[in-house]
Amino acid sequence: MDTNTPIIRKPVVDDGYPIHQLIKSCPPLDLNSAYLYLLQATHFAETCVVAEFKGKVCGFLSGYIKPGAPDTFFLWQVAVGDELRGQGMARQLMDAVLAGDACKQVRFLETTITPDNQASWGLFRAFARDRKAELNNQVMFTSEQLGGDHEPEMLVQIGPFTPAG
Ligand SMILES: CC(C)(COP(=O)(O)OP(=O)(O)OC[C@H]1O[C@@H](n2cnc3c(N)ncnc32)[C@H](O)[C@@H]1OP(=O)(O)O)[C@@H](O)C(=O)NCCC(=O)NCCS
Q: Most buried of 19, 21, 68, 131 (most Cβ within 10 A)?
């Protein structure tokens, strides 16, 4: 196998800790516990993807089908390591997870973004543009609700779009 080409695949349990390390290296993402990433790599594996490059986890996207809304994918975190940035990898991770069986009914994507995360705004605006879908945003969690020492999280809603893109 050509290990110089990133492989996009579902996570497995042994990816949990490497995912934790990747997120740690990708500010401004909030770092969750290793245990959380182990759960995502197992219980939520159908709605998460990793990018493996040269034998290492270099990209990760987590999410789930929103409870009570089978047409909505909630994207929790997306991270691409320095070595793969600016090459369309985050977008490939989004397209890959949405192409999976678990997302067959998905027509809307939701996520939250802090107001100053320009890379994230760029990523989701480009996704909405290419899927010819509307992008709306409003405050989801205020700074106070997040403990006061955190930017507000803006809820970004994109859709409707067709699953195939
Ligand atoms: C955000 C992040 C995942 C983007 O990864 P990436 O693989 O470099 O992104 P892509 O190459 O797939 O870019 C997709 C689109 O986003 C845009 N984009 C990516 N990085 C950007 C930046 N720093 N500023 C503005 N736009 C950006 C690209 O221009 C592209 O749009 P285009 O189709 O109009 O050219 C990566 O920078 C990262 O891991 N950042 C730290 C963690 C984070 O903030 N995650 C998002 C919050 S959940």
A: 19
Q: Is any ligand 1 atom within 6 A of the Cβ of residue 26?
A: yes
Cα–Cα distance measured from residue 63 to residue 40, given in angstroms and rounded to the nearest whole number: 8
pLDDT tens, 98-129?
999 999 999 999 999 999 999 999 999 999 99
Ligand 1 centroid from CA 95, angstroms: 14
Residue range 82-98: mean pLDDT, rounded: 97
DSSP state of 55: T
Mean per-residue pLDDT for 24-45? 97
Q: Are 131 and 158 in contact (CB under 8 A)?
A: yes
Q: Which CATH architecture has domain 7-159?
A: 3-Layer(aba) Sandwich (3.40)
| CB of residue 116 inside a 6 A radius of ligand 1 | no
Domain layout of the chain by residue ranges: 7-159
Whole-angstrom Cα distance, residue 43 to residue 52? Answer: 20
> Could you give the CA distance from residue 112 to residue 123 in angstroms, rounded to a whole number?
12
